[in-house]
């Protein structure tokens, strides 16, 4: 389920990491800080609000703004827009640097590459892996310390097209996920502190948040690490994103046991709150999802309980929200809209994520809506976070039908009953598999000319659901606003 990360300054995420050695990332100083600190701002200038950090990178150093992605696996930076540095070096195929990214591809000049994803828009492209200097501020938890640098910080070179959709001035994305090349992992390896980070997210553009990497204290006038409520982070061992199926998820999940509205428990099918063995279900936290996204039955139960507790008449919905009221019917206080609180009960009834009106409501002039979104009956997971993306490729009906007919003919296997939202499915036993994923015909998007092609292989085009595997393209009807290309993984083994 998605619970908004637009929570108050007292909300922290603390994460510890597995043991890891990255020999390529060695601190460029004899001084070994115990922690690093980066300011964090909320940017609402684009159509999708984003949390922004700034690092210094390259030689000479240049400030680089990045959109924060809690569940992202790596740092990517636009290298097409004036990237100049005397210390930037490509990673060579077969090197230890390349292997840290797991699955990677090799170009003709023996430079390794990997997919880079804009998780705000859902676009993914292939980029070369590079290393360069990254400089950040150290801290003792109370005061800023000296600036320290990592001379060989690994990142993926993105493109102008990949940058589209990010906030103004932002040149890439910074991932904090469970990988060997995320920011927390590279910083902790470089400076030999624990693989731990803490995020304080601001709920407004008027005040800054902060990220700490390493040990506490985490001091915001008081040592907040001593007054936090803790809940374990859960690993989802099966990724549900097309192209990454079967791999462990690099994202962060929490264990929600039940939900209360205005202190009363909401009747739910609690099995939907747990991660299933196929990787679906559970509750993911995210900084690139603006609203709380819930499976249909959970959404309806929570919305019904919320409307009853509010006691006001609903008005016409404002997409994507389905539960809205007239602003004049809702009171306001210093804590924001005076509406019932929504509680997520975590590992036990003493550990509660309390969501007040300032975090749960979205106002549109004279209408105010519950900022929860119905994700349908088959979402991969409920999410706690900040921006909805299109996970699959969505096509206008005639384009979809033409492509599907050609694809089925090329596959040469019998179709089976569809699995929504997909209309073209096969028995898994009828589809071969290779190191590159499902052995199906590739689909090429020919871009500005026939020499520029987006090649979609089986690892990117197919979605497996137990004994059924489907083409991950969706029929959007005859009048969609546009065709959309969803999240794609690109890459190959050497």
Automatic annotation (TrEMBL):
Keyword RNA-binding: no
One GO MF term: aspartic-type endopeptidase activity
Gene Ontology, cellular component aspect: extracellular region
Peptidase A1 domain boundaries: 51-419
Keywords: Secreted, Signal
Pfam families xref list: TAXi_C, TAXi_N
Protein name: Peptidase A1 domain-containing protein
Principal location: secreted
Single GO BP term: proteolysis
Cellular compartments annotated: Secreted, Extracellular space
Gene3D superfamilies documented for this protein: Acid Proteases
PROSITE patterns: PEPTIDASE_A1 (PS51767)
Family note: Belongs to the peptidase A1 family.
Superkingdom, taxonomy of origin: Eukaryota
